[in-house]
Design a protein that fits this description.
Layout lengths: L2 H26 L9 E7 L5 E2 L5 E9 L2 E2 L4 E8 L6 E6 L4 E7 L5 E11 L2 E11 L14 H9 L7 E6 L8 E9 L5 E9 L7 E6 L16 H4 L3 E5 L10 H11 L18 H18 L3 E11 L1 H12 L5 E5 L29 H7 L4 H5 L6 E5 L8 H10 L4 E5 L9 H19 L2
Parallel strand pairs: 2-9, 13-14, 13-15, 15-16, 16-17, 17-18
Antiparallel strand pairs: 1-3, 3-4, 3-7, 5-6, 5-8, 8-9, 10-11, 11-12, 12-14
Helix pairs in contact: 5-6
Length: 448
């Protein structure tokens, strides 16, 4: 890239950073849900949205259009076990913006999903809400292979340290408070990962806690290295990584070409080599996370005794997995972890985790055998550090059923931050609270 293009890139990046607060303020001033004509409010008769098996749940529904209560519209609905086919259907009439629906109960622990549709003045609007039953008794489908520990102990020997390290200054992401570098790690003979490393400007040797942030699902790279700059501003060394060896400085067309070749239905990375535990694509991903954490731990500025990890969805899964593989990790934050109880759909009536495979051609006996070595559930059994885990009940990407399966498997010190209404997202406020939780734990540890 010539100097003119480089300076243009820096100018536009800085312009976006300057304009973002104004854009965010505009977003906050919009309707909730964002720019929707309709507002649904679902209120279960238990304020925590939780019941015991055998208890019946009643949900009051309120519907507004332009803030005015809807009157006389017909509401159709279906009731289904979490992420599964509906078991019953019904109709009711919304009067003065309200309707009450009895969704019954469950005989076994899990979640029920009330899925609703209304047509108002020719406009269709939909909503859903999930409630849980005896959630502390939700147990995973996934069983631990007899040689699970030895398989990973042998695998990690290949990833003790990155084979090759490249560290390039990234001045476009530096500020008056933080420094940033683009890191390239060769984690084994064939694979690389990239990451942005940020830390306080003029960081002192041996003085800073470190946090690694693995990515969500998809074939993508790091697009907003400064989104969580407050970590470095609060004294953390932060290493945000990707898993596919995709250089974030590539052109948009390069990314599209690779995504088309590697993220198709026929060649998705989560099914690549799934019939063989040695060749499964995620083997080098999990090993790569271990190597990346070892690199982070080796930095001179790292204090050596506050090594943390935080991520959401696939990143939440990788956070828990890496915490199990790397006993030096001292704290873990995982939002709605994916890759949890992945093979559960193989049992009729069971709810499985992302990537939500329900096709018997994927969930073959051999593939299920492979998945057991890569499922979050089996790593949760070996997490020793304190964990903060968050999830929402309305999530239909990483279901609350599988989040509870993971939560109930963890035997370490743990804290839950549950937001029932949330689907597959976390707010900026919640993201910042994760950092504050890490800081609080680190401070408490230093005061002992």
């Amino acid at each position: 890239m010539n100097n003119k293009l480089k300076h243009m890139k820096i100018f536009y990046c800085n312009l976006i950073i300057l304009l973002f607060p104004l854009f965010a303020l505009t977003m906050q001033a919009e309707n909730y849900p964002y720019r929707s004509d309709f507002l649904w409010v679902a209120t279960p008769d238990h304020s925590n949205w939780l019941y015991e098996t055998g208890e019946k749940a009643t949900i009051e529904i309120q519907l507004y259009k332009y803030g005015v209560a809807v009157d006389g519209a017909e509401l159709t609905y279906e009731i289904a076990p979490d992420m599964l086919t509906a078991t019953s259907k019904g109709r009711t009439t919304i009067k003065n913006g309200k309707a009450t629906i009895n969704i019954g109960s469950r005989k076994n622990p899990g979640f029920q999903d009330l899925r609703m549709t209304a047509v108002v003045d020719g406009m269709t609007t939909k909503h859903h809400v999930k409630v849980g039953y005896s959630v502390s008794k939700i147990m995973p489908y996934t069983k631990e292979p007899d040689d699970f520990k030895s398989f990973w102990a042998e695998t990690l020997k290949q990833y003790e340290n990155p084979i090759e390290i490249s560290r390039t200054p990234a001045p476009e992401y530096c500020t008056d408070k933080i420094d940033c570098w683009l890191i390239k790690l060769r984690t084994d003979r064939e694979h690389y990962i990239y990451g942005y490393l940020t830390m306080p400007k003029n960081a002192s040797k041996g003085s800073h806690a470190a946090v690694m942030c693995p990515p969500g699902a998809g074939v993508k790279t790091i697009k907003e290295p400064l989104r969580h700059k407050y970590y470095a501003e609060n004294g953390f060394i932060r290493f945000e990584v990707e898993i596919h060896g995709m250089n974030p400085t590539w052109s948009e067309q390069d990314f599209k070409d690779i995504q088309q070749a590697f993220a198709s239905r026929d060649n998705g990375y989560l099914t690549n080599g799934i019939d063989n535990r040695e060749r499964y694509y995620m083997r080098h991903v999990y090993g790569g996370m271990y190597a990346a954490m070892r690199y982070l731990q080796s930095l001179p500025e790292c204090d050596g005794h506050n090594l943390t990890i935080q991520g959401g969805s696939q990143g939440g899964a990788l956070a828990l997995i890496t915490a199990a593989l790397c006993p030096d990790i001292t704290l873990c934050v995982a939002n709605h972890p994916a890759l949890t109880d992945m093979a559960a759909y193989a049992e009729q009536g069971r709810t499985g985790g992302y990537p939500n495979w329900k096709d018997p051609s994927i969930l073959t006996p051999q593939n299920i055998k492979t998945l057991a070595y890569y499922d979050v559930i089996n790593f949760c059994r070996y997490v020793k550090c304190p964990v903060r885990m968050t999830w929402g009940y309305n999530d239909s990407t990483c279901s609350p059923t599988t989040s509870y399966a993971a939560w109930n498997t963890l035997s370490c010190e743990k804290e839950a931050f549950i937001t029932p209404i949330n689907e597959h997202w976390t707010s900026e406020n919640m993201e910042r609270q994760h950092m504050e939780w890490l800081l609080e734990k680190i401070k408490a540890k230093s005061n002992k």
